[in-house]
């Protein structure tokens, strides 16, 4: 489990294309400290497994399903990525509960800069809008953010200077894709209410 608090802005240093997958090599001095084979690291909000680790770099395999459902397929050598290690039991939950399982991809629609923050408008895929509410939580490229406005096919977030400086949202432009993960609690509530309405839960 992750919290959506990005630890560092890493970089793709190599991409190996396989038959039905690809292998990334990524540089991230903070997240690789103490890393071992099999550890999990979130890359732009996608939970990946460390295959190899040497120095401040690690490699991770990305299967075709993940490439299809996320924006990782557009990454190339030199691409900057948000990196986060799983949260430790007993540590502070600085953002919200993030699984690293992408629900869909959105697109940066526009940016409205101001003196002390910036409003970013992002498209919302069909089927996800029911989970996104004003002042609720959403994960964008692995960043835990608060929804400012929520529409039927878009939402906006307000970014402080720290987020702009230390994450990919500081450099992404209109037209760029982003990974989205909605609040898992909303999905559980929907399922439980649906079971109650149909009576399915009573037989379990």
Automatic annotation (TrEMBL):
Keyword field contains Repeat: yes
Start and stop residues of the Lumazine-binding repeats: 1-96, 97-193
Catalytic reaction list: 2 6,7-dimethyl-8-(1-D-ribityl)lumazine + H(+) = 5-amino-6-(D-ribitylamino)uracil + riboflavin
Keywords (A to Z) from UniProt: Repeat, Riboflavin biosynthesis, Transferase
Enzyme class: transferase
Pfam families: Lum_binding (PF00677)
Record GO terms (molecular function): riboflavin synthase activity
InterPro entries listed in its UniProt record: ATP_synth_asu-like_sf, Lumazine-bd, Lumazine-bd_dom, Riboflavin_synthase-like_b-brl
Record pathway: Cofactor biosynthesis; riboflavin biosynthesis; riboflavin from 2-hydroxy-3-oxobutyl phosphate and 5-amino-6-(D-ribitylamino)uracil: step 2/2
Domain Lumazine-binding span(s) in chain numbering: 1-96, 97-193
Superkingdom as given in the UniProt entry: Bacteria
EC number, as in UniProt: 2.5.1.9
Entry function: Catalyzes the dismutation of two molecules of 6,7-dimethyl-8-ribityllumazine, resulting in the formation of riboflavin and 5-amino-6-(D-ribitylamino)uracil.
Protein's name in the database: Riboflavin synthase
Species of the source: Streptomyces atrovirens
């Amino acid at each position: 489990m992750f919290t959506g608090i990005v630890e560092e802005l890493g970089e793709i240093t190599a991409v190996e294309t396989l038959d039905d997958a690809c292998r990334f090599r990524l540089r991230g001095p903070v997240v690789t400290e103490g890393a071992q084979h099999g550890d999990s690291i979130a890359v732009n909000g996608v939970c990946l497994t460390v295959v190899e680790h040497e120095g401040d770099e690690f490699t991770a395999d990305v299967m075709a399903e993940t490439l299809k459902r996320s924006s990782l397929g557009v990454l190339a050598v030199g691409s900057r990525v948000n990196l986060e290690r799983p949260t430790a039991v007993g540590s502070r939950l600085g953002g919200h509960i993030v699984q690293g399982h992408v629900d869909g991809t959105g697109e940066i629609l526009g940016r409205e800069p101001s003196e002390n923050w910036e409003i970013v408008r992002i498209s919302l895929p069909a089927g996800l809008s029911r989970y996104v509410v004003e002042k609720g939580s959403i994960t964008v490229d692995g960043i835990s953010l608060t929804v400012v406005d929520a529409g039927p096919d878009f939402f906006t977030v307000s970014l402080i200077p720290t987020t702009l400086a230390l994450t990919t949202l500081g450099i992404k432009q209109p037209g760029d894709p982003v990974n989205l993960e909605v609040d898992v609690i909303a999905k559980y509530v929907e399922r439980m209410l649906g079971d109650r309405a149909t009576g399915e839960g009573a037989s379990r």
